[in-house]
Specification:
Blueprint: H1 3-13, E1 18-24, H2 30-42, E2 47-51, H3 62-73, H4 78-91, E3 96-99, H5 102-108, H6 110-120, E4 124-126, H7 136-145, E5 148-150, E6 152-153, H8 159-168, E7 173-176, H9 191-201, E8 207-210, H10 216-222, E9 228-231, H11 233-255
Parallel strand pairs: 1-2, 1-9, 2-3, 3-4, 4-5, 6-7, 7-8, 8-9
Helix pairs in contact: 2-4, 2-11, 4-6, 6-7
């Protein structure tokens, strides 16, 4: 069982859904982004998701785009990601996964990226813009290093696509709650619940729902049927508006939504 799987299991054993919290590396600066990620771990997040800045963040909503563009403008580069992961994992046992656009991995070198992430203490990659059939080099590198590979499933995915995502993913399946970019929505699509049910039918052991989750009430709704909830925009906004202290307060508030009646995850 990987560190990410163990973190989800620990949350389940405590009667909670897992809380996956996203922040961009280097926003508002590298040192603050490291302190912010540690604050997530100290205030209820079970898995930290770090996003290296990218020049064409097609999946990201305006709040995250604004933050990542600021980080890029400040000179944050891929090497800084590994610096951040190393500092964060030295301060907390909460696993760190990287949500990265695939071009950044290719430019750096797939095996080199995997080796440097492992050496820094990272736990795996979420790759939103590459599908399993196009990810042979990364699948091989992840099997060699033991890093988790987390692919996305969408409400529009066919059963055949879900079979491939489930069989190729480790850690968890990133379950897209609704079509579109990341951001806050006042009401999550019911499609997320249906998608998790379809993933379960196809053998998915762990499915965490992301895109549009921004309140404790939404997290509570998601963890009724999924293994965890992924929050990004609300945390980035809290860091932007209130600094690390404001982020810590928001994280604690959101974490209150993870409690649920105990249930047993498949082995």
């Amino acid at each position: 069982m990987s560190r990410v799987e163990e973190a989800i299991r620990r949350a389940q054993d405590a009667g909670r859904g897992a809380f996956v919290g996203y922040l961009p590396v280097g926003f508002p600066d590298l040192d603050t982004s490291i302190r912010a990620a540690i604050a997530l771990a100290e205030n209820g997040v079970d898995v930290i998701e770090l996003g290296p800045p990218y020049s064409d963040p097609v999946m990201d909503g305006p709040v995250i785009q604004e933050a990542t563009q600021a980080a890029l403008a400040a000179g944050i580069r891929t090497a800084d990601l590994f610096t951040a992961v190393r500092a964060i994992t030295a301060a907390t046992a909460v696993p760190v996964v990287v949500m990265t656009y695939w071009n950044l991995v290719v430019q750096y070198g797939v095996d080199r990226y995997a080796d440097d992430l492992l050496a820094a203490g990272g736990a795996g990659l979420i790759t939103p813009d590459i599908t399993p059939e196009a990810a042979g080099e990364w699948i091989a590198a992840s099997e060699r290093t033991g890093l988790d590979r987390i692919f996305l499933a969408a409400p529009t995915s066919t059963d055949e696509r879900l079979d491939l995502v489930v069989s190729s993913s480790t850690g968890f399946v990133y379950t897209v709650s609704t079509m579109g970019i990341t951001g806050e929505r006042t009401e999550l699509d019911r499609a997320a619940r249906t998608l998790v049910e379809r993933l379960r039918d196809r053998g998915a052991v762990r499915a965490c729902v992301g895109i549009g989750i921004s309140t404790a009430a939404q997290i509570a709704d998601v963890v009724e049927y999924a293994d965890g909830a992924i929050v990004g925009t609300a945390l980035v906004r809290a860091l932007r508006d209130g600094g690390v202290d404001g982020l810590a307060e928001t994280t604690r508030s959101l974490a209150a939504g993870t409690s649920r009646a105990p249930h047993t995850l498949p082995n």
